[in-house]
Amino acid sequence: EAVREMTPEERRRTMPGAPLWARAATVAAGPIFNFALSIAVFAAVIFANGEDADPLAVGALREMPLVQELQIGDELLAIDGIAVPSFGDGVGFSALEEQITKSAQVNYTVGREGAKLDVTGPYPYPALVTNVVPQSAALKAGLQIGDVITAIDGEEIVTFFQLQRRAIASEGRELALKVWRDGEVLDFTFATKLGAVPTDNGMEERWLIGMGGDGPFIPAVRSLGVFESIKVGAQRTSDVITGSFSGLYSMVVGDIGTCNLSGPVGIARASGAAASQGISNFIWLIAVISTAVGMLNLFPIPVLDGGHLVFHAYEAVTGKPPSDGALRILMGAGLVMILS
Known about the structure:
The protein is of the alpha+beta class. The protein has helices at 8-12, 20-49, 90-99, 137-141, 160-170, 226-253, 264-276, 279-297, 305-318, 324-339, and strands at residues 51-52, 58-61, 75-79, 82-83, 105-112, 115-122, 131-132, 148-152, 155-156, 174-181, 184-191, 193-199, 202-208, 211-212, 217-219, 221-222. The protein has a four-stranded antiparallel beta sheet, with no helix packed on it. A four-stranded antiparallel beta sheet has the order 9-8-10-11. Strands 1-16 form a two-stranded antiparallel ribbon. Strand 3 (75-79) and strand 4 (82-83) form a beta hairpin. Helix 2 (20-49) runs antiparallel to helix 8 and helix 7 runs antiparallel to helix 8 (279-297).
């Protein structure tokens, strides 16, 4: 009744009185802004931090239990006599890891100040903690960035992949870890947790410690321009969407459990854990959450923006919107679905 009493100019500024295209654009604006924010945040972080330079070079050295002869600025030419591939060659890096001697120290061939030198340094894929996953066994146990895991259940560990295999094989039983931290050796005992990891065919559940690893040095980086950063930011946003759909599909078909879903409390805990590891991790998580919110909002479920867009599509086809009664039933059903 209130809308009918308005002038055409007043009615145009309301949702019921606006033309169909304007109502659809208004509804779509929320998810679109979520994606725009994600791209902007990803791009800003990438613009500020740069990306690894190619060819691979040492940007900074990490603290390790062993003395390393690598120096800042060294360009890595070969490891154990095997040529270091370019960053785009994922197959080459996998082959490199398989062929390197599984030893705490290996031989590096580097380019340094125009000369070619052979030096020794830590294994290039050590059991080094460079990221602790929120709500993981590692976080609960107190592992920190910079820790180096040297043994599991009394058996020496040299590589990150040895650590990974032992974690998967544990099937949730407690593991006794020896950890090097700032020159001291500490003991930790905790059990792995089931978690979802991406595979070539979607997602699968594995027993995980809940940490990420990297090399014994931080690679040198190259600066990206604004437009290149935005392009990479858009790709990161696309990766989050693709990964989210893959995870949801894997839950539906039973490859992974619904324990991988989190509500507001889980998001808050993950945010706190990310913030404790540095502002960059926290900002990155904001972009991930913004992408996920925008994606979920486009699901064709009444109450969500995607449901409203379905109603607008129905109106575009039939020439009239759904009845008030039908809307009330559908919105109630959508609300029940979301809450459950």
